[in-house]
Design goal:
CATH superfamily of the largest domain: membrane protein fhac: a member of the omp85/tpsb transporter family
Number of helices: 13
Helix content: 10-25%
CATH architecture of the largest domain: Beta Barrel
CATH topology of the largest domain: Porin
Number of domains: 6
Distance between the termini: 53 Å
CATH class of the largest domain: Mainly Beta
Strand content: 35-45%
Number of strands: 32
Length: about 775
């Protein structure tokens, strides 16, 4: 069996003094025992108490801890207790008492030899653990008293830390070296030994649940090839306590009410290189739910309450499900203003029938209303910008669901590092004040970048964004992309509450030039749009767009589709859209969905006539351990009318970080004989992602993905056999410059002249 090793040196430098002091103390007690006991009426009185040798602790502190008092009768028992108490302070190596006659009574003189002060703390022998990490684990500091219990306690702290890092053979010996009469140097002499990892976790006594199921809920894992990266195989006493509770909870969730989990047993292998961790389980009998009742309810009927409960008679008792049922009942009450409602589950276990009868005892309380709503921490943002996102007003009936939604909406502004809404009840007045506390973050962003590609050659990119202009929630953005083949300038402004009304307004202008292999495109345009939320999760907008496009320098080898687009054309269009968005967080989504229908109709003047529609649906599902699974589907269709073709620049191009990763722009669609990507008038896309946390503190996540899709041209039917599919992995980081994506896509079935893989990068938006 392996146990914590705690070897404490008996303080070599001043340990020999302890034997002398012990002898002196013993003689003193012999002297006291020869003093006859006296009563309060006849005994001598303590006329004076003197203190000598106390430098670090004041006289008042010492006298306050003593029973012996000047003017009180002398008592040898009181003196004995005083010595014991003064030793207990921890400041003294020796306490001696002199007794002498004085002014018709007795004078007590306490002579102290104080413990030395620790002048310095050092570590020797630590090679695998840095000194700064060891210093962080101890509570003793230079200037502290050289107390044996204090030094021993910190020795144990160092040993525990080494154990948590896998060094189970460590030895830590504290050594003190006298520097002067009043000071010592403390050195922790460390022998680290080799790292010992858990190589085998043994589960015994389990019958109903498999070893695999039990090990899965444990964070303590067996060591493996990559333990140096994952940290698996290390035994940590605090973590194993949590693991035992998780195992216990799992059994409770499977009806084993009286399951017992043993203390873990650790065994070190003979060669002292491996640990075996054994956990013994006594499962007991499995219990089912017997009678299910509700008591104390007057606001809702039994049927209304039980309708929100998933636990039912005959089911296996599941404590986790029961907790969720209680939360559902509380949500039912708190959405009606009963802010102080409580549900106490009374479980009556019938061992004979192996049944657990459950009574949900409800304490309803009273209806509460919203009192004051105070906003703090917004040094830049106007109060009204925050207040208009709160779904409750002063005087409204308290509603927990709307409170949660208020938090989501304020957080989704993306103006604040943190958002906290604290309900403060005023029970006598039946009011709840809402204290909204936010912490501002920088909402302006300046980013400049550059690069090189085989298509664009050298590139320079710059963007200036202010997401909270003047603290009023206005969004301003200017973006420029410059390269040997491309020039693009874009300026946009959006006001989410135009003229302080719940209507958004947006405005943008742009100018772009792009030199394609078979033609050049120059475009100038702008747009004006308005939007409105129709309900909490549903909204829509309508935008008018005008764009002047000039297609020039069409090569002789270009396809007829490109040649037909040559010349200057004006597009005047209107774009209505509608959406339903229930995502919990727009930037870092873990649950909810967004479903949208976009459309565009061109032909309100101008020379282009076409219509375009896109259905886009994305869903997020929380899994376990802060992991998220998401699926997305998109279908788009466009075509010309009134005798006009669909413009080249309005077609669907599939390939790239926002459609099918691992394919180049337009590779997932029609391509002419010269290799020019033509795009299609139809597209069908599916994306699946599994997102998992890597480092929560910096909000770094990993992603595994599978993409499936293609664009199809006129005369082409959508055929699954022609769909392109890719897979890959990447990183998502909520960086100071905005959401950052780095994703590596693998082309699972590359066609001629296509690469097998593609590394792509973007900042500023989430897929």
């Amino acid at each position: 069996m392996v146990k914590g090793i705690s070897l404490v040196n008996p303080f070599v430098s001043f340990g020999s003094k302890l034997h002398i002091l012990t002898a002196i103390t013993f003689l003193f007690f012999v002297f006291l025992l020869n003093v006859p006991a006296v009563s309060a009426e006849s005994g001598p009185v303590v006329t004076s108490i003197g203190l000598n040798g106390n430098k670090k602790i004041g006289e008042e502190t010492i006298l306050a801890k003593m029973k012996s008092k000047a003017g009180a009768p002398f008592s040898k028992n009181a003196v004995q207790e005083d010595i014991k108490k003064l030793y207990g302070i921890g400041y003294f190596d020796d306490v001696r008492v002199e007794i002498e006659s004085f002014e018709g009574g007795i004078k007590l003189t306490f002579n102290f030899t104080e413990k030395p002060t620790i002048a310095s703390i050092d570590f020797q022998g630590n090679e695998k653990v840095e000194t700064k990490d060891l210093k962080d684990k101890i509570t003793i500091t230079a200037g502290a008293i050289a107390s044996i219990p204090l030094i021993t306690d910190n020795t144990e702290k160092l040993i525990s830390y080494y154990h948590s890092e896998g060094y189970w053979l460590v030895k830590v010996i504290p050594i003190t070296r006298e520097i002067s009469q009043d000071t010592v140097a403390l050195t922790f002499q460390i022998s680290e030994g080799q790292k010992v990892l858990i190589k085998n976790i043994v589960i015994e006594g389990n019958k109903a649940l498999s070893k695999k199921e039990i090990k899965k809920v444990m964070k303590t894992k067996e060591g493996g090839l990559f333990s140096f990266i994952t940290g698996s195989g290390v035994y940590q006493s605090e973590q194993i306590r949590v693991d035992l509770e998780r195992i216990r909870d799992m059994y409770l969730n499977h009806g084993f009410i009286y399951a017992a989990i043993s203390e873990p047993e650790l065994t070190l292998s003979p060669e002292k290189k491996k640990l075996t961790l054994k956990i013994s389980i006594s499962e007991g009998e499995q219990y089912k739910i017997g009678e299910m009742k509700v008591a104390g309810n007057t606001v809702f009927t039994n049927e209304e309450i039980l309708k929100n409960v998933k636990s039912a008679t005959g089911q296996v008792f599941d404590r986790g499900k029961l907790k969720n049922d209680i939360d559902s009942i509380l949500d039912l009450y708190t959405e009606k203003g009963y802010a102080m409602a409580d549900v106490n589950p009374l479980v009556d276990v019938n061992t004979k029938d192996e049944a657990a009868n459950i009574t949900l005892s409800v304490t309803e309380g009273s209806i509460f209303r919203i009192g004051r709503i105070d906003i703090a921490g917004n040094t830049k943002t106007y109060d009204k910008v925050v207040r208009r996102e709160i779904r409750l007003d002063e005087g409204d009936v308290y509603n927990k669901k709307l409170l949660k939604r208020s938090y989501q909406r304020i957080n989704n502004l993306n103006f604040f590092e943190s958002v906290d809404i604290s309900p403060q009840p005023r029970s006598e007045e039946k009011l709840i004040d809402l204290n909204v506390k936010v912490k501002e973050k920088l909402t302006g962003m300046l980013s400049i970048g550059g690069g090189y590609s085989s298509v664009d050659k050298f590139m320079v990119m710059g963007e200036i964004t202010q997401a909270n202009l003047f603290g009023k929630g206005l969004y301003l953005r200017f973006k420029a992309d410059l390269s040997a083949r491309r020039k693009n300038y874009n300026l946009s402004l959006r006001d989410p509450w135009f003229m302080d009304k719940p209507v958004s307004a947006s405005f943008s202008i742009y100018n772009e030039f792009y030199e394609y292999p078979d033609y050049d495109k120059k475009a100038t345009g702008g747009s004006v749009g308005f939007g409105k939320e129709f309900s909490e999760y549903v909204g829509g907008d309508i935008t008018y767009n005008i764009e002047n496009v000039d297609i020039t320098k069409v090569s002789d080898s270009a396809s007829s589709v490109i040649k037909d687009q040559e010349g200057r054309k004006l597009t005047s269009s209107i774009s209505p859209s509608i959406w339903r968005d229930t995502r919990d967080n727009y930037i870092d989504t873990t649950s909810g969905s967004r479903n949208a229908l976009y459309s565009q109709l061109a032909g309100l003047g101008g020379s282009n006539y076409f219509y375009k529609g896109l259905v886009d649906s994305i869903w997020y599902f929380p899994v376990i351990w802060d992991m998220t699974f998401s699926v997305r589907g998109r279908f788009g269709y466009a075509n010309g009318y009134n005798g006009k073709e669909l413009p080249l620049y309005e077609r669907f191009y599939v390939g790239g970080i926002n459609t099918v990763r691992g394919l180049g722009f337009g590779e997932g669609g029609p391509i002419d004989s010269s290799g020019e990507k033509l795009g299609g008038n139809k597209e069908l896309l599916f994306n699946a992602e599994y997102i998992f946390p890597i480092e929560k503190e910096i909000r770094l996540k990993g992603v595994l993905f599978f993409d499936y899709g293609r664009a199809f041209d006129n005369g082409e039917n959508i055929a699954l056999s022609k769909m392109r599919y890719t897979a890959g992995a990447g990183f998502r980081w909520m960086s100071p410059l905005g959401p950052l994506r780095l994703e590596w896509g693998f082309n699972l079935k590359p066609e001629e002249n296509e690469s097998r893989q593609k590394l792509e990068f973007s900042i500023g938006g989430i897929f």
